[in-house]
Amino acid sequence: MAQLAAPVTVVTTADGEGRRWGFTASAVTSVSLDPPRILVGITHGSSCHQPLLEAGQFVVNVLAGRHDTLAMRFAARGTDRFAGGEFEDWPGTRLPYLPDAAVLLRCAVRDIVPVGDHDLLLAEPLEAHTGGSSGALVWYQRSFHVPVQTAHLGEAAAGAA
Ligand SMILES: Cc1cc2nc3c(=O)[nH]c(=O)nc-3n(C[C@H](O)[C@H](O)[C@H](O)COP(=O)(O)O)c2cc1C
Q: Residues in domain Flavin reductase like (predicted)?
C-alpha cells in the first residue's frame, strides 16, 4: 500500500459539547457524482471514531504542501491537536475548519460500511470552498510529497515527432 499515492486531509468534527476532534486521513476519495458522495475511512481504534459517527457531520480539510507539520500533529497521540489555533468554526456550526486549507468540504454522513477494522463513511458534500493555500500534499512511500506536473501530453507528443 505504500506505493499508492494518496491525498492528505484533516477530517474534523465537534461533539455535542462543542469539543473539537480531528485526525489526519489519507483514505479519502470521491466515489459518486449522482448522488454526490465521498468516502472517508476511519479505523475503529481512532479517538475520533465515536465523535464522528455521533456527530454525523464533518469537514474534510484538504491539505496543501506546506501543511506537513500540521498533518503530523493531527496523527500524533497525547497532544492537543488544535493547540496551534489555526482552526475556526464553520459559519453556523461548531465544526472546525482550516481557513488555510487547499479545499474545504463540509459533509453529512449518509451511509456507514464496516470493512474489517475500519468504517467507510459515505458522505454527502454540502458545501465546498477553496481555501487559502494552493497545491496538494500527498502521502507516498510513508512520507509527504508535493506533486510535480509532468510534461504536457501535447508537448510530449511534439517532442517525440
Ligand atoms: C498520512 C497519514 C494518513 C492517515 N490516514 C488515516 C485514515 O485515512 N484513517 C484513519 O483512521 N487513520 C489515518 N491515519 C492515522 C490517524 O491520523 C491517527 O494517527 C490515528 O487515528 C490515531 O489517532 P488517535 O490518537 O486519535 O486514535 C493516518 C495517519 C497519517 C500520518
A: 1-146
